[in-house]
Amino acid sequence: MNPDLRATAEALDAADPLRPHRDLFVGARTPLVYFDGNSLGRPLAATVGRLERFVRDEWGGRLIRGWDESWMDLPFAIGDEIGRVALGAAPGQTVIGDSTTVMLYKLIRAAFDAQAARDPGRVEIVIGTDDFPTDRYIVEGIAAERGGRVHWIEVDRAGGVTTEQIAGAVGEKTAVVVVSHVAYRSAHLADARGITEVARAAGALTVWDLCHSAGAVPIHADRWGFDIAVGCTYKYLGGGPGSPAFAYVAHRHHETLVQPIPGWMGTADVFSMGPHHAPAAGMRRFLSGTPPILGMLAMEDTLALIGDVGIDAIREKSVELTTFALEVVDEELVPLGVHIASPADAVARGGHVTLGHPLMRQATAALWRHDVIPDYRDPEGLRIGLAPLSTSFTETLTGLLTVRDTLVRLTPTA
User: Fold this and answer.
1) Residue 180: beta bridge partners?
2) In what order do the strands lie in the sheet with 205-209?
3) Burial, 395: exposed, middle or buried (Cβ in 10 Å; 0-12, 13-18, 19+)?
4) Pair type for strands 352-356 and 381-385
5) β-strand 124-128 against 94-96: which pairing, if any?
6) Helix H or strand E encompassing 111
7) How far is 301 from 40, CA to CA, in rounded Å?
8) From residue 109, how far is each of 81, 117, 121, 256, 369 by CA, in Å?
9) CA-to-CA distance for 45 and 238, rounded, in angstroms?
10) How many C-beta atoms lie closer than 10 Å to residue 173's C-beta?
11) Residue 88 falls in which region: left (phi positive, over 0), alpha (psi -120 to 50) or beta
């Protein structure tokens, strides 16, 4: 190894203004290298006490009274906090609810139906061929269910959907455009403002998947003119395994979108138990069932930390981390036949990088056994997720050198 890489990593850690926050996370002081913060974020130590107190004092102490005292408001209070610290959204437009899959279905379907009611000729949903599988499956299902069709955009797996591609795909038949702000495979960072403007000019509604950007990349949902957005909370927002998704719906659409799963929690008077569903005003109308309170609690500590640090500072470190990682890859892994399957330009890259090599599936299994935890993504991609608040430069170097050594061991000798 070039000794300059170790010196560079140590110097970057020493100069990192976010370095003290790393010690706030459970497990951050262990030798384990965690390259999966973009899949499941580390928990904060403070969250351990928060969950314990909730079980003992609120659930155990207040019991069902908790609903009247605070729990019924949590989806909106925490939603507004996500909007404030991570989405650039004014209050009253973000709510916590179902899983990401269910939220995407409800809001893409609601957008499609609203467009079809306005203009029956709008029958197309535009989406990229390399969007996350759930997004693609849902779009196909809604198109089949509602008599629509999918307009596929062919996507470079090392890149993502571009503004120019959207401009060439939308038109008078377009109902909805679905785009991932950060591509799950390559980390391509889409031009959210430009794509939204192009879609709006064509009369289409946009639904943004923010799963890989919320909490890692600055988002200005209101300023950029977003219509709808959905994102998960267990990655950079620290909600924990299976924590519920958030939904953003711009104020201007609240009274025109009809969500397709009309449960009791989305009614105007939740406890009236009336014979027919009367949708509530505002974001409540986009809820369906009972809010998953336990699944919301963990993210409160992470949101507070993001709010204190600021998303711009988080993005700055994210760029430095991925840039340093690619320097290590160029020097130590490219000579072994590894190729970079992410944008080279940091401006066009989110918070992770993907590395390609025919042995990456076997390498991932071997790395996990040695407490280096990346993701594997077909075809032959090793995904390195670098969470700015909990990942250090030295950890990044250590993990990538272990990837190098693992590939050397796995490579057949002549």
Assistant:
1) 209
2) 94-96, 246-249, 228-231, 205-209, 174-180, 124-128, 149-153
3) buried
4) antiparallel
5) unpaired
6) helix 100-118
7) 15
8) 26, 12, 16, 13, 42
9) 11
10) 17
11) left
In the chain, the amino acid numbered 288 is S
Dihedral over alpha carbons 202, 205, 211, 214 (to 10 degrees): 90
3-class DSSP assignment, residue 185: coil
Three-state SS annotation for 211-265: CCCCCCCCCCHHHHCCCEEEECCCCCCCCCCCCCCEEEECHHHCCCCCCCCCCHH
116-148 burial: b if 16+ Cβ within 10 Å, else e: beeeeebbbbbbbebbbebbbebbbebbeebeb
- Provide the strand spans (E) within 273-349: 339-340
Integer angstrom CA distances of residue 384 from 107, 148, 264 = 30, 37, 41
379 upstream amide cis, omega within 30 of 0: yes
User: In one letter, which amino acid is 203?
Assistant: G
Half-sphere exposure at residue 326, Cβ-oriented, CA atoms within 13 angstroms = 18
- Cα gap 191→169, rounded to integer Å: 16
Mean pLDDT of the region 361-388: 96
3-class state of residue 25 by DSSP: strand
- Which residue numbers are catalytic? 132, 209, 234-235, 383
User: How far apart (Å, rounded) are the C-alpha atoms in residues 129 and 137?
Assistant: 11
C-alpha span between 145 and 155 (Å, rounded): 25
* pLDDT 10s digits, 85-97: 999 999 999 999 9
Residue 360 CA to residue 380 CA, distance in Å, equals: 5
Phi, psi of 353 (to 5 degrees): -135, 150
What gap in Å lies between CA 402 and CA 172, rounded to an integer? 52
Residue 17 has pLDDT above 60, yes or no: yes
- pLDDT above 70: residue 414: no
The pTM score is 0.96
At residue 315, the pLDDT reads 98
Is residue 349 pLDDT above 90, yes or no? Answer: yes
Residue 240 amino acid letter: G
Contact 190, 347 (CB under 8 A): no
The structure tokens listed for 55 are 């079980």
Q: Measure CA 226 to chain center.
A: 16
Q: Would you say 165 and 145 are in contact if contact means Cβ atoms under 8 Å apart?
A: no
